[in-house]
Amino acid sequence: MISELFGGIDENVGVIIPVHSPEFVKVAPSKQYEDRNVLDIDDVKKRINCEYFEIVRIPNSDYILVADEEGLFNNPMVNIVASRLVGVPIVGDVMLCHTSLVA
Predict the structure, then answer these.
(1) The pTM is what?
(2) CA distance 20 to 34
(3) Which of 8, 15, 33, 67 makes an SS bond possible with 103, Cβ 3.0 to 4.6 Å?
(4) Which DSSP state fits 101?
(5) CA distance 60 to 78
(6) Whole-angstrom Cα distance, residue 11 to residue 62?
(7) Distance between CA 55 and CA 11 in Å, rounded?
(8) pLDDT tens track, the chain, 103 positions
(9) Are strands 53-57 and 94-98 parallel, antiparallel or unpaired?
């Protein structure tokens, strides 16, 4: 399901799902952790414009959202795409990625 929605995304890249734009931005991992490439969490936080983040699991998948922990204070606009993925309201820009891309 995730791959079809986001133009062939796989477990090797993350995708920024912005609130204000229909354009998804692919983000390649830029750090090494043990024997794999992972996303740089500081880069992710800059891209989704947050200081504190939370991980939101997408039901029945190996994908997660990295969301702004303080989103209701910082950017209270509902992210419709992200909200539909998890079944609860999510606000602000988020990063969608496979669980293997976080360490």
Answers:
(1) 0.89
(2) 36
(3) 33
(4) G
(5) 22
(6) 9
(7) 16
(8) 666 666 667 788 999 999 988 888 999 999 999 999 999 999 999 999 999 999 999 999 999 999 999 988 886 899 999 999 999 999 999 999 999 999 8
(9) unpaired
